[in-house]
Design brief:
Blueprint: H1 3-8, H2 18-22, H3 37-41, H4 43-57, E1 70-71, H5 80-107, H6 124-127, E2 157-158, E3 165-166, H7 170-180, H8 202-230, H9 237-248, E4 252-261, E5 265-272, E6 284-290, H10 301-305, H11 308-314, H12 319-340, E7 347-351, E8 354-358, E9 361-362, E10 365-366, H13 377-396, E11 410-413, E12 416-419, H14 433-450, H15 459-467, H16 476-497, E13 501-503, E14 512-513
Antiparallel strand pairs: 1-4, 2-3, 4-5, 5-6, 6-8, 7-8, 9-10, 11-12, 13-14
Helix pairs in contact: 13-15, 14-15, 14-16
Bound molecules: adenosine-5'-diphosphate and magnesium ion.
Enzyme class: transferase
Subcellular location: Cytoplasm
EC number: 2.7.11.1
């Protein structure tokens, strides 16, 4: 059985009348939670709600102690589905290789070539690769890549003079058609005609081919439906195969288990594998898998849709690709931070919706979040100044606003604070960039004021210190109004000049434009 799948299946949802736990829609909620828009977007609230949900429906996924999730030798052999997928992948590769050989043999020098492309076993692992994604960043040979299309042969006949045989010859054609039946999907019964000298007319062959093809599609569709329904909470088979390939290629040594399951992502711990020519793999890695179920991403649209870096692409993308874009965004943002020297995970590789980065922590134990660690007052003060500094660097050097900064996304490791979770980070000139910054400032300010750091600036002072703006309003309402006015001014510039301000200025200085 699929171990993660089992964990994902909701057990009885706690105490309550029997009819409630049996109800397919779950127990009706009796508590109604009212909160502001800012709270809705806050990770803190999301985490709390999610924790309740998870405790009820998802109790055993964090199972690092149960042994490795994927290793080179033992690839989750407890999962029948996984094993079947692995075998299927091997089989598909052989099948495709055979298909290509057949294709070459049959086409030979013929003028008109026949393509077996439609019979290729497009494995789910390969099926939705797209050109616009950042993919494997190495250049090693990919065994899944199709051969170059064969060029049109010059001759369409063999023999000479009266012995000439063209490709239209009935006997040759019939035999070829029979041989081609071998390439129908394996579950399609073709009888033992292949062993005889059977000659199939083109008409019969085409009808058979059509039928085999639609049968194959039908079974693929059924299969896919099943996959999607089980992929709700845990990692779906496609993702598992992706992870498997990372282990199989030697890039990762072992994927030991899950360290976090959130609404939008699942994070695993892994031991790094062999370095390649251009890549050093850290000894321990974190693998962030962005969930491919779309529901949770709906209310994140505004972070990416309005980010001009991704704007043009957003409208053309399907939801699956949008999720990959979150992973891509996290990669780009981490890289910027790394370049500025901000302590954060180092990007190892991005593959579709899976981001591999260095692990912050040691021996499979992730560094604690700031919210979970008890610091001495000295360390607390040190952490505060470090964060103030990092926020300024992020804004000025990386041109970024974290947009989900709180004690939940800061880890304490090696006596300092590390920033994580930057998939939603935006540039300050994002239409809501300054509002996001203000929210970040409020979280940081409140955390350290509550934590007894007397020097901690209040949220408005912190906002000005980070952004270099000089908003003078002495109450939150007016302060926010000024922030929104600045954002609007920037948007008006975009409307009128097609250009964004590259930085904001409230000192009456002329605005600075992007080149
Ligand atoms: P989410 O969007 O689910 O909040 P995060 O990036 O915050 O995703 O990751 C969730 C949790 O996984 C973090 O709180 C942290 O405990 C752990 N985590 C994420 N990245 C790393 C990393 N590079 N090293 C160690 N732990 C990590
Ligand atoms: Mg987080």
């Amino acid at each position: 059985m699929d171990s993660v799948g089992v964990a994902a299946a909701a057990p009885d949802a706690g105490p309550g009348p029997a009819w409630q736990s049996k109800c397919p829609w779950g127990a009706p909620s009796t508590t109604s939670i009212s909160c502001s828009l800012a709270d809705v977007m806050s990770e803190q609230l999301a985490k709390e709600l999610q924790l309740e949900e998870e405790n009820a429906a998802f109790p055993e996924v964090v199972a690092a102690a149960e042994g490795p999730f994927i290793t080179g030798e033992n690839i989750d052999t407890s999962s029948d589905l996984m094993l079947a997928q692995m075998l299927q992948m091997e089989f598909d590769r052989e099948y495709d290789a055979q298909l290509r050989r057949e294709e070459k043999k049959i086409n030979g020098d013929s003028k008109v070539s026949i393509s077996f492309e439609n019979y290729r076993k497009v494995h789910p692992y390969d099926s939705d690769s797209s050109e616009d994604e950042v993919d494997w960043q190495d250049t090693r040979h990919d065994p899944y890549r199709a051969d170059k299309p064969t060029t049109t042969p010059r001759r369409g006949f063999i023999g000479k003079g009266k012995d000439i045989t063209t490709k239209h010859d009935e006997v040759v054609c019939g035999r070829k058609n029979t041989a081609r039946m071998e390439n129908f999907a394996p579950e399609f019964q073709v009888g033992d005609g292949i062993g005889m000298d059977l000659k199939l007319s083109n008409q019969v062959f085409n009808a058979l081919k059509q039928h085999a093809y639609s049968e194959e599609r039908r079974s693929a569709r059924l299969h896919e439906k099943k996959e999607h329904s089980t992929a709700e909470k845990a990692v779906d088979p496609k993702t598992r195969l992706l992870l498997y390939k990372m282990v199989n290629s030697g890039m990762l040594e072992t994927i030991t288990g899950c360290i976090s399951t959130g609404k939008e992502s699942v994070v695993f711990h892994a031991y790094g594998g062999n370095a390649t020519e251009d890549k050093v793999i850290p000894p321990e890695c974190a693998i962030k898998v962005f969930k491919t179920t779309l529901n949770e991403f709906k209310n994140r649209d505004k972070y990416i849709k309005d980010d001009y870096r991704f704007k043009d692409r957003f409208s053309k993308l399907n939801p699956r690709k949008i999720i990959r874009m979150w992973a891509e965004k996290e990669m780009h943002n981490l890289t910027r931070m790394q370049n500025a020297g901000i302590p954060c995970p180092q990007v190892v590789i991005l593959k579709k919706h899976v981001l591999v980065m260095s692990f912050i922590g040691q021996d499979q134990v992730p560094a604690p979040k700031l919210k979970d660690v008890t610091l001495s007052s000295e360390d607390m003060k040190k952490a505060y100044y470090q964060i103030l500094n990092m926020m300024q660097q992020l804004y000025r050097e990386c041109n970024l606003v974290h947009a989900d900064l709180s004690e939940y996304n800061m880890l304490w490791h090696d006596g300092k604070v590390w920033l994580i979770d930057v998939s939603q980070s935006v540039e300050p000139t994002h239409p809501h960039g300054l509002e996001f910054l203000f929210r970040d400032c409020r979280n940081v300010s409140q955390f350290f004021q509550k934590g007894g750091v007397a020097e901690a600036l209040n949220e408005r002072e912190l906002f000005n210190a980070v952004s270099g703006l000089n908003i003078t309003a002495d109450n939150e309402v007016d302060f926010q109004a000024e922030i929104e006015a600045l954002e609007k001014m920037n948007e008006d510039h975009v409307q009128n000049h097609g250009k964004k301000l590259s930085t904001f200025s409230s000192d009456g200085d002329p605005p600075i434009y992007d080149e």
